[in-house]
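Chain X:
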Amino acid sequence: KPEGEGGTSTISGKVFAQDYNGSGVLQGEFFLADEDVFIIYGEGDNYYDDSYNTSFDGSYRFQYLRPGIYTVFVYSDCIACPSGTEALSQTVEISGNNEDIILDQFVVRR
C-alpha cells in the first residue's frame, strides 16, 4: 500500500522558536505552542496531506503511518525571502511496522 494513514508507525518531534526583534536582536527562545506542522505522504507531491498543531511544549506527532517516505515541514520567518517565510523540512523513510521516528528539532525564526 502507498504511504499514508492505516499503519502502525509514528513520526514525532518538537518545534523551537527564536524570537527576534525588528533590529535582528534575539529576544527569547522557547518551544512553540499551537504551531502548524505539515506532512507530505510519498515523493513528488507539492501539497501537504495532513497537519498537526503543536502542543504546549512544542511537540507534534503523526500517527498510524504505513511504511514509505514522508516529508515533515514548518514555516519560519525569513527577512531575506520575498514571501517573508521559508519552509524548513525533513524527509524520513519508515521501513517497517511499529516504528517510532523522532525527527531533529525544528528551529524557526519569529
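Chain Y:
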Amino acid sequence: MPEPGPVTAETAYHLIPRGASFSGLLAFDGDVRIDGALDGRVQARGTLRLGPAARVRADIEVDELIVEGSLEGDARARRRIQVEPGARVCGRLEAPR
C-alpha cells in the first residue's frame, strides 16, 4: 500500500480555523488540519495536522499525527507521529514510527 500524500493546507479539511476554538470529543475520518484551539479528545481514522497556530490540549488517537504547533496531552498514532521544528509537545507520544 503506498504512503499517503502530505496533509497540506490545500489537501486537508480545516476543521478548527485560526481564531476558533472547540471543546469536547472530535471524531472524523480523513485528513484534518487544526489551526485554532482544541480542548478535549480526538478519536479518528486518518491524519491530523496541528498547524503552527494550533493550541491543543487533548488526548489523541489517530492513524497519523503531524505537530507544528502546541500539543499538551498524550497521543497515540497507528502509523506515525511527526513533530516539526518549532513544535511544542508536553505529553506521551506512542507510534510505530
